[in-house]
Amino acid sequence: MALQIEKTVSTSGKKSNKTLTRVHLILDESGSMGCARQSTIDGFNEYINGLKNDNNKYLISLTKFEGGNIVNVFSDVDIRTVRELTFDDYTPCGMTNLNDAIGCTIQGMAFNKPRTLHNTLVVILTDGDENSSTEWSQPMVADLIKSKESDGWTVTFLGAN
Questions:
Q1: Helical ranges in 53-125 per DSSP H
Q2: Distance of alpha carbon 17 from alpha carbon 8, whole angstroms
């Protein structure tokens, strides 16, 4: 399920069988996701558990968004410490600021941590219904994604419907 791009070189100069990948999940928690609440929770958990069973090393970040809010839930934690998402953790409501969430999150990622020594994967879980972004337009987000992909990042959308 996850991407294995290439083997990394350890500090001793020997090849390592484990690849460090930073995965940042951007989770749509807007009202339109209400009808897909359980399937979104199940999909999130299946994805995380798949990474846990992989032979690579993952650092996971989670950002949730709805109604103008963009909340970084956790950042760069070891995959082994990520617990499953529950019904209490995921309560869809509000409008969908999808473009703002993607733009602000990716822009913040680019400035937060050096991303050249590992793989970067951005996974956006959404139904795609944008209706309330104020800072980022769809063309701006598309340009940002294209720029990051040319830097070697992988950005993917997982549909919730």
A1: 98-112
A2: 8
Strands 57-66 and 20-28: parallel
Helix, coil or strand: residue 14? coil
Partnered with residue 119 across adjacent β-strands are 21
Q: Residue 156's CB: how many other CB atoms inside 10 A?
A: 10
40: Cα within 13 Å, side-chain hemisphere = 27
Residue with tokens 């309560």: 91
| Tokens encoding 107 | 């822009």
User: Helix, strand, or coil here: 63?
Assistant: strand
User: Mean pLDDT over residues 150-154, rounded?
Assistant: 92
What is the pTM assigned to this prediction? 0.87
pLDDT of residue 17: 55
Listed as own residue / partner, the contacts of 70-76 with beta carbons closer than 8 Å and 24 or more positions apart are 70/97, 70/100, 70/101, 70/104, 70/105, 72/105, 72/108, 75/112, 76/22, 76/113
DSSP H helical ranges for the chain: 37-52, 98-112, 138-150
Sheet with 69-78: list strands edge to edge: 69-78, 57-66, 20-28, 119-126, 154-159
> Residue 77 contacts by C-beta under 8 Å, 6 or more apart in sequence?
59, 60, 61
